[in-house]
Amino acid sequence: MIVRNALMPRSDASLSEFTTWRVGGPAEYLAEPSSIEETSAWLSWAHDHGMPCRVIGAGSNLLIHDDGLPGLSICLRRLQGVQMEETTGVMDVLAGERIPSLARRAARAGLHGLEWSVGIPGTAGGAAVMNAGAQGSCTAQWLQSVRVIPLNGGESFELQCDQLSYDYRHSRLQEEPLVVVSARFRLEPGHDPQQIGSVTNGNLSHRTTTQPYQQPSCGSVFRNPEPLKAGRLIEGQGLKGTRIGGAEVSTLHANFIVNTGTARSDDIDRLIVLVQERVEERHGIRLHPEVKRLGFNLAA
Ligand SMILES: Cc1cc2nc3c(=O)[nH]c(=O)nc-3n(C[C@H](O)[C@H](O)[C@H](O)COP(=O)(O)OP(=O)(O)OC[C@H]3O[C@@H](n4cnc5c(N)ncnc54)[C@H](O)[C@@H]3O)c2cc1C
Questions:
Q1: Which end of the chain, N or C, is surrounded by fewer C-beta atoms within 10 Å?
Q2: Are the beta carbons of 173 and 129 closer than 8 angstroms?
Q3: Given the residues 98, 169, 184, 278, the one annotated as active site
Q4: pLDDT digit string, tens, across residues 200-219
Q5: What domains, with CATH codes, occur in the chain?
């Protein structure tokens, strides 16, 4: 049972329902707070009980082991709320807001800035942590600040964008035990909603024709070894369609690994390693996964 407002002694919630790969074992405890105060209380609860704790957004960049996760997993997808100032372009959002829905709202208000993000099925918090990006733009470009709470509980505080060491799919938030509870975007006001909407729609339809959108995945598995593209290197090795168990290198986009329905976490993990080895043998380039693994060290 999933813990929402009341503490339950144990949760058998399958984390596969919390990842876009549809893979992941049970959470020992699981909480889905819907306010910052509740999030803070759960973080303190885990700390007070000496438990390991981590947060999950939309699980769209996560590979969680089938053995599950000990301690408390906090999923922030219900932590929702948006305040938008159409005249200034300032958009304050709680961390669980979905990026595609923010892109749509911004378009309707004639705010330019998030058109590239409409096909990224993550949360605002996850996007700030991962510096999610596409089409030459990224989160850091439009983010003004985030509000965070230490992972072991305590007071929230604000960090400005220039304090977050943003780089390609990287931020300081990936290394520090901080939970993003809200984000402030500064978008460009005064644009024609129809024009912004049509660019946004165009970006989405481009993605749905070039990426395996209908199958469970976590988007691009590997970071691009710039200026090269990971997908091209993988495709060049003839790896499209390669399978291990229920995991398959997408036949549509080689940097995607899809769950064909029965994938286990180890299938995906082994396929990641196979792709890395093949590309390294041929090109001497080590591909680094963009996706975050949880629970793998425990299962070794
Ligand atoms: C079909 C598809 C297409 C995609 N396309 C793109 C793309 O074009 N560009 C791109 O960059 N990514 C893409 N992704 C990957 C993914 O959507 C992004 O990385 C997204 O930012 C992850 O957000 P999330 O909320 O799902 O984070 P999760 O996957 O839940 O978590 C990712 C990491 O962030 C941490 N985290 C999440 N939320 C918080 C928080 N509030 N505070 C602190 N830590 C947190 C987690 O602990 C974990 O380490 C795609 C994924 C899919 C499935």
A1: C
A2: yes
A3: 169
A4: 999 999 999 999 999 999 99
A5: 15-75 (3.30.43.10), 82-209 (3.30.465.10), 211-299 (3.90.78.10)
